[in-house]
Please model this.
Amino acid sequence: MKKVILKIISLIVCGAILLLCFAGCAKAPQKAEDFRVTAYVRGEFIQSEEALHPEDFDIITDVILFECASFDNKGEIVYDKDILEIALKNLRTAIGDRDVDITLNLLGPGSVTDSTVWEEQMESQSEEHNKAFKSGVLEENIVKILDEYNFDGVHFDYEYPLSKKAWRIYNRFLVSLDEKLGERTLGVAFVNWNMNYTRKAANAVDYFELMTYDYVDSDGKHATYDDTVAIIEGMKLKAIYPSKVHIGLPFYSRPTDMSAYWYGYSECYENIDADGWYHCDEINKDFWFNTPSVIEKKTDYAVNNGYGGVMFWHYTCDLPSSQEGSLIRAIGNAVEKAAA
Model:
C-alpha cells in the first residue's frame, strides 16, 4: 500500500513539473528567425506593379491575399479571375526568390436579414456560413483553387460566429479542411472576446491573426501600446498556443469619435505630428496613428513574449520600407534587434 501511495505522489509531482515547464515555455522568447511578419494585401490595390516594393519582402514573411475570392452558401468558390491573377503576378514579381508564403483569404457569405441589429445580422451571416460549411464540397473546392494557383495555404476572416451552434459547425469544418490541406497552412482571424475554438480546431489551425485594433481609448487614441498589451494579457487562450498567435498592428486610424472613416498612414504621413496626431480639415476630425516607435515597441513585445509574429492591416497603407518613416521598416528593426 505504501509503495502505491508513493507511486501516486511521484506521478502527481511529475505532472506538476510538466505543467510548470509548459507554462514557462508557452511565453518563452520567440526566436527571431522563426518570427512571422504577415501582411494583409488587398488584391484590388495591387493591380499595378508600382503598388508593391520588393525591399518590403526582406521583412515580410507571409502575405494574406485579401478580397480576391470568397465562397457562397453552397460551398462554391467565387472570384474575379483577372483581379486574382494580376495581383498574384505582381506579388510574385515583387517577392522574387525570397521565401515568402502567399495564402488566399476567403470571405464567406454575408447576412441576408433586413434587421439593423448587429447580433441579428451576425446570426444571419452564421446561418449562411453554416450552409457552406455543411455543404460537403467546400473543402474540395478550396483545395482545387489552392492547387490551381499554387497558394501556400488558406485563410478565413469569419466575423463573427456568436452562437454555440455556429461555433460547433465552424470548428468541425476547420478540422475537416485541415485533413485535406496536406502541407498547406490554415489561418484564421479572431478577436480576444470571441475565440471558442475546440482543442481539435485549435490544433488544426496554424496561424491565428489577432485583430488588436479598431478601438480607441478615452483620449481617442487608436490601439495604443498599453491598451494592446492589456488586451493580450487579459486573454485566456485556452487551447491556442501563443506561438501560433500573430499580434495585429494597424497601419490605419479611425477618428477619435470612431465615425466611419479609415485613413491610411501613408496618406497622412507628412502631416502627422511627433505624438502621432493628425487633424483632417476637410472633415474636421482628429486621428491618432501608430507611429514607427509604437509599431516597433509592439513588435518587440510580441517577439519577447513568445508570440509567433505580428500581422498588419494593410499593406498599401504604408510607405516603402526603404523610407525612414515606414512602419514595415519599424517591424524589421525590432526583429533585427531581437536577433542580435
The two ends are 56 Å apart (CA to CA). The chain is about 40% helix and 20% strand.
